[in-house]
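Page 37, top half.
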Amino acid sequence: MFVDPTTDRSSSHWRFADVEHGTSGGAADEFELATLIALVSAEPAVKGMWRARQVPFSSPDDHEGRWVYLVEVDGTELTIDPATMSTALERSPVEVATTGGGVSPYQRMIRAYGELVWAATPEPVLTVARTFDGVHDDGSPFFAPDHPRIDDAGERARLLAYLRSAPTIVTTTATARDVAAPERGAVVPLNFRTDGVWIWPDTIEYYLEQHRYAPDSRLLAHIGEGKDKAPPLDGVAIHRATAALFRKEG
């Protein structure tokens, strides 16, 4: 299979360097990448491929070391003959992870530090949902007096189920002050989730559940009627949403 059994994953020997989008290696590196893309793009089971730079732990130079690849597959049988990977694997090991299956910490590191170099699907337009209606001069957010409320308990439960079923892409222990009930203090969660098209903070869930404030009307239109569960996502969708969020935050 794709996995190179000689790969040394020991954190005492290697570290991952930050890889900027579009980082180019030498001619041999780019030939290797082109070869792998040609192979995986013809493979129906492959969802996406990442490339990360693995550097000897003792080296201060991020350009030393080697590239490592992670290929995500949908669980169906691969048709690529392992022998066809031999040329590429002379220089760089390739890992395989299954969508919805167990992803090792090592493979998570490849995704976290690496660049998504190929995907089976085009990148969608990702939108971050708004929670509040505005911001005061002192920087504190607020809800407008006429902000819509969702009074129907069943509808709130359905929407909360959908919002909470989506995977978390940014987790933090930080909390914010409840602007609708300041006496509660900093109790509002600040994690972010995605369904692959929309990104939203858990603040939306909090204000819906605790104060009946409706989520962003555009997000509501996207969810539609009757849905109470977000679609399952592969690693490509989660990677793209995380990258889009940090571009927005930056």
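Page 37, bottom half:
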Amino acid sequence: MGILRQYNNEIIIGHNVGPHEYNASTYAIKLYPATLGLSSADFYQNTTGRQYKAYHKLMVEYTRLLNAPNLTIEADITELLLFESKLANISR
């Protein structure tokens, strides 16, 4: 998660560490729901659309930057986007 955080990516749950809201001398880990990669759930429905294709390409490029095995990148990203699509449908 630390490597993904460097690229400003959150995995299902966003997090940060900051001063506790009632006791400023201590710190608290704050968790919150992360947003999906695409700004609208509608973009996940059209897998041939410009936004979906651009997002797919971006995900593949990020995955390569993280030194993932090239043999599985396309299949893994396709599976990941199917999962995000399901999450987008739940959040509608």
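Margin note: Residues 59 and 65 are 10 Å apart (CA to CA).
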